[in-house]
Design goal:
The complex is a heterodimer.
Chain A lengths: L8 E4 L5 E6 L11 E6 L6 E4 L13 E6 L2 E6 L8 E7 L8 E2 L3 E5 L1
Parallel strand pairs in A: 1-9
Antiparallel strand pairs in A: 2-6, 3-4, 3-7, 5-6, 7-8, 7-9
Chain B lengths: L2 E5 L3 E2 L5 E8 L8 E8 L6 E7 L4 E3 L7 E6 L4 E6 L8 E9 L9 E2 L3 E5 L2
Parallel strand pairs in B: 2-11
Antiparallel strand pairs in B: 1-3, 3-8, 4-5, 4-9, 5-6, 7-8, 9-10, 9-11
Chain lengths: ~110, ~120
């Protein structure tokens, strides 16, 4: 059981947009603006895509965007491309005892 | 850009100690600008943060694993290591090492290794 809840899978066609949700509680996602997202192609190192809810590190396309409402954070990928097919994980600060908690991951399929 | 690579035994017997090393290249574990972390993912489950270490030796561990975890750093080899004692099948997972920038507030994991699968079985 992961601390943060994500849908197990989402899908979309090339060019479309998809949104992946990440639901926590007021003790993590809802309590801080410290949500990050990671893209993981199996067998490769996870890649850092979003931090502080909606900021993009250098080199991440602006097709990737993040947002938050209450206890739910979201990652939106617009203009879907074949290479976006991967697993996506959300992560949040959860207070001074635990540095970070993660979601269970969402498999994005580009149809 | 920095690269991280995990190494260690892929099979550990129950009740024994799991030991992994993360070798950092194109970067330095002695840099005061970063923390160095371990994260794991059991099969079919989500990611779990294990702990982190600063070059000075300062550590922080996940409370759920704290009694069994030790993270250390070897600046001479540019490596940091994980030891998890008294392992059970529940500790079977892909183990990742990752870097955390030392910022004013909470910082994400900006670079990761590819991960290494450790199976606990007799």
């Amino acid at each position: 059981q992961s601390a943060l809840t994500q849908p197990r899978s989402v899908s979309g066609s090339p060019g479309q947009s998809v949104t992946i949700s990440c639901t926590g509680t007021s003790s993590d996602v809802g309590g801080y603006n410290f949500v990050s997202w990671y893209q993981h192609h199996p067998g490769k190192a996870p890649k850092f895509m979003i931090y502080d809810v909606s900021k993009r590190p250098s080199g991440v396309p602006d097709r990737f965007s993040g947002s938050k409402s209450g206890n739910t954070a979201s990652l939106t990928i617009s203009g879907l491309q074949a290479e976006d097919e991967a697993d996506y994980y959300c992560c949040s600060y959860a207070g001074s005892d635990t540095y970070a908690v993660f979601g269970g991951g969402t498999k994005l399929t580009v149809l | 850009q920095v690269q991280l690579q995990e190494s260690g035994p892929g099979l550990v017997k129950p009740s024994e100690t799991l030991s992994l090393t993360c070798t950092v290249s194109r970067g330095s574990v002695s840099s005061g600008s970063y923390y160095w972390s371990w994260i794991r993912q059991p099969p079919g489950r989500g990611l779990e943060w294990i702990g982190y270490i600063y070059y000075s030796g300062k550590t922080k561990y996940n409370p759920s694993l704290k009694s069994r975890v030790t993270i250390s750093v070897d600046t001479s080899k540019n490596q940091f290591s994980l030891k998890l004692s008294s392992v059970t099948a529940a500790d079977t997972a892909v183990y990742y090492c990752a870097r955390i920038p030392d910022g004013n507030n909470w910082s994400p994991f900006d670079y990761w290794g590819q991960g290494t699968l450790v199976t606990v079985s007799s």
